[in-house]
Design goal:
The structure is a single chain. The chain is of the alpha/beta class. It has a domain at 2-180 and 232-261 and 300-311: Rossmann fold. The chain has eleven helices and 14 strands. It has helices at 11-22, 38-48, 62-71, 86-91, 93-113, 147-165, 199-207, 235-248, 268-279, 303-309, 317-330, and strands spanning 2-6, 26-31, 53-56, 76-79, 118-124, 170-176, 178-180, 214-217, 229-230, 232-234, 254-260, 266-267, 285-288, 297-298. A seven-stranded parallel sheet has the order 3-2-1-4-5-6-11, with helices on both faces. The protein has a three-stranded mixed sheet with strand order 12-9-14. Strand 2, helix 2 (38-48) and strand 3 (53-56) form a beta-alpha-beta unit. The longest helix is centred in the first third of the chain and has 21 residues, at 93-113. It binds nicotinamide-adenine-dinucleotide and uridine-diphosphate-N-acetylglucosamine. Residues 6-7, 9-13, 31-36, 58-60, 80-84, 99, 103, 122, 124, 176, 179 line the site of nicotinamide-adenine-dinucleotide.
Length: 337
C-alpha cells in the first residue's frame, strides 16, 4: 500500500513516516521544506533501512501535485502540510488561509481527479477554543480565536462537505492535543526555527543553555498550581494513532473525528520539574504575565479513540521529557550540521 505524506519531513510527519516504513507501507513524502529539512528523512531512512520517495513540492501547486499522482498509485493521504504558528497567523492571516486552506483544496481536487478519496487530516485541539469544561469530548462546541485555528476549522468543514458531495470520500480528522518528545534514538525530533513558541522546546533549549530562562506565562489560573494545564502527548504515541487511523479508513462511512490526547493534564511547573529530573539540568524560570489567547486548562477525553481506533497513549511524562532531552542534547542545533 502506498501512502502520500504531505509535510512528511516535519516534526510529526517524520515520526509517522518512520512508523509507516516499519509497518511495511511504501511512503512518498511531499514537502516544500518551508519548515523542515530533508535531513529528517535521511535519518528516517537510516533508522529503518528503507527508502522514502522524497518529493520537493508545494500543496498549493496543482502541477506539483499532479506529477506525484500521475507517477504513483496512491492509496491514501496523510495530510500534515501546513503552517502552525499562532502568533504569525494573527499577523499574516492571508498567508495562513492561502497555505493551509487553499493548499488543502488543491490537494483534494487532485486526489479526486486521480480517484484517491482517503485522507487523514491533522487537526488540533485548538478547534475547541476555550472549552466550557474538561476533559474535552469530540462533540464539544467548536470555535477559533486566531487565523491558524480558523484554518483548521475551515478545513474540517471542507472535508465534511466533500463527503456530502461524494460518499466515496473517507476522512479521519485527528485533533491533536500537545505533541512533545522525540523518537527514542534521539536522531529525529522537533526542530523549531528561531525562538520556540511552544513550552517543551523552550524548556529543552533552556536546559541545554541556549536560552537564559523560561518565562512562565501566568501563575494565577484556576489550576492546581496556578500555571496553565495541557495534555502533552508523546509524538510516537501520536504517530501510532495515525497508523490506526489509516487501518480504519477503508471501513469508515464518511467522516470520523477523533481526539488524540492522553487524558492527563500537566501544568507548566509539572513539566519543568519532570524535565529537570529527566535531564539532570536546572531549568531557571520566572513568572510573567499571561499570554494573550491562552486558556487555563485543556485536556482530552481519549475514550472515543480507544473505542473506535483501539488506540491509547502509552508513554508518560518521564518518557516525553527523557526523549526530548536525548534529541535536544545530541542535536543542540537541530538538523543543522
Ligand atoms: P511542522 O511545521 O514540523 O510540519 C509541517 C510540514 O509541512 C513542514 O515540513 C513544512 O515544510 C510543510 N509544509 C508547510 N506548508 C507546505 C506547503 N504549502 N506545501 C508542502 N509542504 C508544506 O509541523 P508539525 O508540528 O509536524 O505539524 C504537522 C501538522 O499537525 C500541521 O498541520 C499542524 O498544524 C498540525 N498540528 C500540530 C500541532 C503541534 O503542536 N505540533 C498540534 C496540532 C496540530
Ligand atoms: C499552542 C497554540 C495552539 C496549538 C498548540 C499545539 C497558542 C496561543 N496556542 O497552544 O493553537 O494547537 O500550541 O501546538 O500559541 N508556556 C509558558 N512559557 C512559554 C511557552 C508556553 O509558560 O515560553 C505555557 C503556556 O502559557 C501554556 C503551556 O505552556 O500554558 C503550553 O503552551 P504551548 O506549548 O504554547 O501550547 P498551547 O498553549 O496549548
Amino acid at each position: 500500500m502506498t501512502v502520500l505524506v504531505t509535510g512528511g519531513a516535519g516534526y510529526i510527519g517524520s515520526h509517522t513516516t518512520l512508523l509507516l516504513l516499519e509497518a511495511g507501507y511504501d511512503v512518498i513524502v511531499f514537502d516544500n521544506f518551508s519548515n523542515a529539512s530533508p535531513e529528517s528523512i535521511k535519518r528516517v531512512e537510516a533508522l529503518t533501512g528503507r527508502k522514502v520517495t522524497l518529493i520537493e513540492g508545494d500543496i498549493r501547486s496543482r502541477e506539483d501535485l499532479e506529477k506525484v499522482f500521475l507517477n504513483h498509485a496512491i492509496d491514501a493521504v496523510i495530510h500534515f502540510a501546513g503552517l502552525k504558528a499562532v502568533g504569525e497567523s494573527v499577523e499574516q492571516p492571508l498567508r495562513y488561509y492561502e497555505n493551509n486552506v487553499c493548499g488543502t483544496v488543491q490537494l483534494c481536487e487532485v486526489m479526486a481527479e486521480y480517484g484517491c478519496r482517503q485522507i487523514v487530516f491533522s487537526s488540533s485541539a485548538t478547534v475547541y477554543g476555550d472549552p466550557h469544561t474538561t476533559p474535552i469530548k469530540e462533540d464539544f462546541p467548536l470555535s477559533a480565536t486566531n487565523p491558524y485555528g480558523r484554518s483548521k476549522l475551515f478545513i474540517e468543514e471542507i472535508l465534511r462537505d466533500l463527503y456530502v458531495s461524494d460518499s466515496a470520500w473517507k476522512v479521519v480528522l485527528l485533533r491533536y492535543f500537545n505533541p512533545v518528545g522525540a523518537h527514542e534514538s534521539g536522531r529525529i525530533g522537533e526542530d523549531p526555527s528561531g525562538i520556540p513558541n511552544n513550552l517543551l522546546p523552550f524548556i529543552a533549549q533552556t536546559a541545554v543553555g541556549k536560552r537564559e530562562k523560561l518565562s512562565v506565562f501566568g501563575n494565577d489560573y484556576d489550576t492546581h498550581d496556578g500555571t496553565g494545564v495541557r495534555d502533552y502527548i508523546h509524538v510516537m504515541d501520536l504517530s501510532e494513532g495515525h497508523l490506526k487511523a489509516l487501518e480504519k479508513l477503508p471501513q469508515i462511512e464518511g467522516v470520523l473525528t477523533v481526539n488524540l490526547g492522553t487524558g492527563q493534564g500537566y501544568s507548566v511547573l509539572d513539566m519543568v520539574k519532570a524535565f529537570e529530573k529527566a535531564s539532570g539540568q536546572k531549568v531557571p524560570y520566572e513568572f510573567a504575565p499571561r499570554r494573550s489567547g491562552d486558556i487555563a486548562k485543556c485536556y482530552a477525553d481519549p475514550t472515543f479513540a480507544k473505542e473506535v481506533l483501539g488506540w491509547e497513549a502509552k508513554r508518560g511524562i518521564d518518557e516525553m521529557c527523557e526523549d526530548t532531552w536525548r534529541w535536544q542534547s545530541s542535536n543542540p542545533n537541530g538538523y543543522q550540521l
